Amino acid sequence: MTKKGIVALSALISTLSLSLPGLANVERFETNMTESITDVGKEIYDIHMLVFWICVAAGILVFLFMLYTIIKYRKSNGHKPATFHENTAVEITWTVIPLIILLGMAWPASKTLIKIYDTSEADMDILITGYQWKWRYEYLTNDENDNVSFFSVLSTPQDEIHNIDPKNNNYLLEVDKPLVLPVNKKVRFLITANDVIHAWWVPALAVKKDAIPGFVNETWATPKETGIYRGQCAELCGKDHGFMPIVVDIRSEEDFNAWLKEEQAKAAEIKALTSKVFSMKELYDEGEKVYQKACLACHGANGEGGIGKAIAKSAIAMGDINTHMDVIVNGVPGTAMQAFGSQLTDVELAAVTTFQRNAFGNNMNETVQPIDIYNLKQGQ
Amino acid sequence: MAGPDKGFSRWLLATNHKDIGILYLWFSFAMFLLGGSFAMVIRAELFQPGLQLVDPNFFNQMTTMHGLVMVFGAIMPAFVGLANYMIPIMIGAPDMALPRMNNLSFWILPFAFAILASSLFMEGGAPNFGWTFYAPLSTTYAPPSVTFFIFGVHLMGISSIMGAINIVATIFNLRAPGMTLMKMPLFVWTWLITAFLLIAVMPVLAGAVTMMLMDIHFGTSFFSAAGGGDPVLFQHIFWFFGHPEVYIIILPAFGVVSEIIPTFSRKPLFGYASMVYATAAIAFLSFIVWAHHMFTVGMPLVGELYFMWATMLIAVPTAAKVFNWITTMFKGALTFETPMLFCIAFVFLFTLGGLTGLMLAIAPADMQYHDSYFVVAHFHYTMVAGAIFSISASVYYWLPKWTGRMYNETMGKVHFWIAFIGFNLTFFPQHFLGLAGMPRRIPDYSIQFADFNMISSIGAFTYGLAQLIFLFNIIRTIYFGEKTTEEQTWESARGLEWTLPSPLPFHTFERPPAIK
Amino acid sequence: MDGDNNSKGNNNIVLKLSITALLMFGFGFALVPLYDVFCEVTGINGKTDNERYQGKAFEKDITRQIKVQFIARNNDAMPWFFNPIEKTLTVNPGESILTYFHAKNPTLDRMVAQAIPSVSPGRAANYFHKTACFCFEQQPLDGLDSIKMPLIFVVDPDLPKDIKTITLAYTLYDITDKAAVEVKITKLSQSSINDSYLTRRD
């Protein structure tokens, strides 16, 4: 391509892509692997660079030889072809030399690999479960009452995805609730999946591990720096594979402990809330939020349906209230409708049921209280 | 012997290896354009961040269909077509060993792909689980069309196996007297080894899809943990097929390049014997490295170490091949007609793809590269710049021999340069995207990936355009090309095909030629 | 062109290659048991064999303690409540331990469940022996019923020294549709527990 062509093309690209608002603020034209914040990750990065430079060197040698041949031995230069067609010594040489170079790469790579498999005692365990299409994090502790677990769902507004609103800097890499971890602690990740295979990938932690339904994989990381780090699901898992990001918020130990306390308190509070009676407005507003993160992907922004059935004017949302609750809490076996009973709190379940019964023109004008859900779960 | 039948029955009832070769080649071109149009949809959606043209589910159908159609519909049939057309001539045989089976193995294909393509219009859409169709996404969570997909894969598999059996029988039984194995052109050698690979692994793929079918419809649990199965087992079986499969795609390309480079270097191929041994070594290694596609599934350490080391070994015979090709050019008298341009680009770009392949073999690093755009870039450097470039080269190389007409050299060169630039523009930036953290198979991406994706899309449209030039040039050649009757189209081409008149008569070597 | 010799030769090759293809089709299926053997040997996936351990009894190793962590979770549309009664136990290798999991069917219908165990790290899978486990059998449960399900296990004293924590995760699957029409009620009777190594403790 001519120089002029390159200039014109880059001008075109800059114009087209600069029309995206916010792009000026992100790292553009990033060409290399993310540098890790863990020691093992740094080693992986070094291996990557080592192998990369060996490949560059090998490539340059081969291509220089090729270029020299192409320029020198042209028929148009009047060169007469030689007739040789084998040379055992040369052929053996270029078999042995790559072998030696390979050994030079295999040695450090194997050492790093062994470190990745270090199973020594971890400071904390986190159970990561991949769902279509969100992540669930559970902090495994000994005490049932201290248990903190939550779903982490894409928080990028639909309007940004559909090009109605300008895209923010963390477009598609933001979640409602990040995984919070303490710095300088060895964290063991137990990774599994609820439905299909997912893969939990955070480049800065140098962790990518498949989440396989029915099996638990383990890996670990010791983050050495605080900050917010982002990643994505790396294994095709269906429609919204591109929309289930991972955000890890690494905090100082004190901040982390404070956060954990707060979360534990919140969990207790939610338990208490179950017995409270809420107003229609409270339930509707909360339900709308829950709908957006739990239902919208399948049932559509206006309850029009999609992968799931329509909710607007549906027989379930406008029919028997207990059946409606049962569908949401227990799912519909054999269909894409999941059982949300264990995914959402009783308050959230009550709110979203209320919302569905009153939104989208359903106007049933009735509320479902958390205690109703609790009773349903208890089978009363 | 009689000449060809008239009209449609010539093709429907074709038993002549050249006619069947033509059928295969046109079929694969049609599939290439179909799979290419899927790629255009993908790149159009990825032109900018945000969802613009298609919904995510349809996007997944496009990536799946693109992969399936290109691998099974475009590249493999194109090489089978070349094999049908050229192998009997190259070994001095009158035809393929089993002409009627040859007819059947071709005519299965249009039905297989009609079934596959029709799934796009079915309720629930086409297969959307990627061309690697990992369970349980492709079983419990698959659209209903998966059953048609399985049927289609079975048909393709039967077609490939019959084709491979035919090729082995032809090479073993119909060589002209004096055509010893070590005198065979390298294209014949690579195809012989490819045929054995096909016979060995296509049935394994058939087994995998049969197990899927049973899991979906007959209540078995091969791939479901609920009944004692394991989703990872699917990946092992798939890649036991899948890794040899990528060599099935690339070995005939090696053969083509080993034919064309000596011609335009006016010098015999360097290291013929070592080329044969390297091909055999690559084929053997392909059976024992499959799990390098699965470094993140949670294999035990020993497994990871073994598959890393074994995979790295493949670099040795592959490097030997690259050195052989360049040394063939070394001290030759090079000219740069379109086939040669494609072959030089092949050596250059395939080496790049090989080097990134070596990077991917390093298990600890692969855990970061895996399922990112780095992998997408890597395998397109081997599949497109490897297989497709070599197919383009062979069409230009043999078209005058097939048709008795010369293609337009200028248009050929324009095709090459646009394809070369378009290809690199498309796939080189994808290395960067992958390293920077963009996963593959996503319909939308975060904005720091915007620039390279836009470049990539522009490159893809350019590459797509180049193929229309290719098509036009072929059609123009067939009807209006300058007539050429000389036996030696190229100054110093070797091989039996260049002892025959152009265009090739309908029947050739009814009496075996004398082999020096 | 089809001389007699040729067509005989062709038939011979076609026959041999077709048989090869059929054998390879069979080999695809043979990979299933081969893989299970492979898993058992190497502990891929932490896949443990889902059968009662019937090997030798062990001496209790009092020199070290292993933390055993229990995880109970549901697959996809499974609505049951399912949790371990004790989330972690500290045990000596060689010691037989009885613990319970709790399950409740909150729906109104009778359902059948199957629990699938997975051990991590995968290398520990071969050293974690279950002598009685609710996961050996399908578990039917009437609507609104609940059940306490026993697990008896022993950690092999040969467990590699660097492993200090073993995680046993159960995933509960709804197999109501797949289970046989007439489901055998398989309550783990007291006798089967007595039958185990538990009685030999002390």
Task: Describe the fold and architecture.
The complex is a heterotrimer of chains A (380), B (516) and C (202). Chain A is built from ten helices and ten strands. Chain A is of the alpha+beta class and 380 residues long. Chain A folds into three domains: 21-116, Helix Hairpins (Orthogonal Bundle); 124-256, Sandwich (Immunoglobulin-like), CATH 2.60.40.420; 274-378, Cytochrome c-like domain (Cytochrome Bc1 Complex, Chain D, domain 2, Orthogonal Bundle), CATH 1.10.760.10. Chain A has a five-stranded mixed beta sheet. In chain A, strands 4-10-9-6-7 form a five-stranded mixed beta sheet. In chain A, a hairpin with a 4-residue loop joins strand 6 (198-202) and strand 7. The N and C termini of chain A lie far apart (75 Å). Chain B has a single domain (8-499), classed as Up-down Bundle (Cytochrome C Oxidase, Chain A), CATH 1.20.210.10. Chain B contains 15 helices and two strands. The longest helix of chain B is centred in the first third of the chain and has 35 residues, at 56-90. Chain C is of the alpha+beta class. Chain C has two domains: 4-42; 49-200, Ctag/Cox11 (Pfam 04442). In chain C, 22% of the residues lie in helices and 32% in strands. The longest helix of chain C has 39 residues, at 4-42. Chain C is flat, with a radius of gyration of 23 Å. Chains in contact: A-B, A-C, B-C. At the A-B interface, helix 1, helix 2, helix 3, strand 7 and strand 9 of A face helix 3, helix 7, helix 8, helix 9 and helix 10 of B.
Brief description of this entry?
The complex is a heterotrimer of chains A (380), B (516) and C (202). Chain A is an alpha+beta fold and 380 residues long.
Task: Describe how the helices and strands are arranged.
The complex is a heterotrimer of chains A (380), B (516) and C (202).
Chain A: H1 3-18, H2 39-72, H3 88-116, E1 124-131, E2 134-140, E3 148-152, H4 158-161, E4 179-182, E5 187-193, E6 198-202, E7 207-211, E8 217-221, E9 227-233, E10 246-251, H5 253-273, H6 280-294, H7 296-299, H8 321-330, H9 346-358, H10 370-378
Parallel strand pairs in A: 1-5, 4-10
Antiparallel strand pairs in A: 1-2, 2-3, 5-8, 6-7, 6-9, 9-10
Helix pairs in contact in A: 2-3, 6-9, 9-10
Chain B: H1 8-12, H2 17-45, H3 56-90, H4 99-118, H5 146-173, H6 186-217, H7 231-265, H8 272-285, H9 301-313, H10 315-329, H11 338-361, H12 363-369, H13 373-403, E1 405-406, H14 409-436, H15 450-480, E2 482-483
Antiparallel strand pairs in B: 1-2
Helix pairs in contact in B: 2-3, 2-4, 2-15, 3-5, 3-7, 3-13, 4-5, 5-6, 6-7, 6-8, 7-10, 7-11, 7-13, 8-10, 10-11, 11-13, 11-14, 13-14, 13-15, 14-15
Chain C: H1 4-42, E1 66-74, E2 81-84, E3 88-91, E4 96-104, E5 111-120, E6 128-133, E7 139-141, E8 146-155, E9 165-174, H2 190-194
Parallel strand pairs in C: 1-9
Antiparallel strand pairs in C: 1-3, 2-4, 4-8, 5-7, 5-9, 6-8
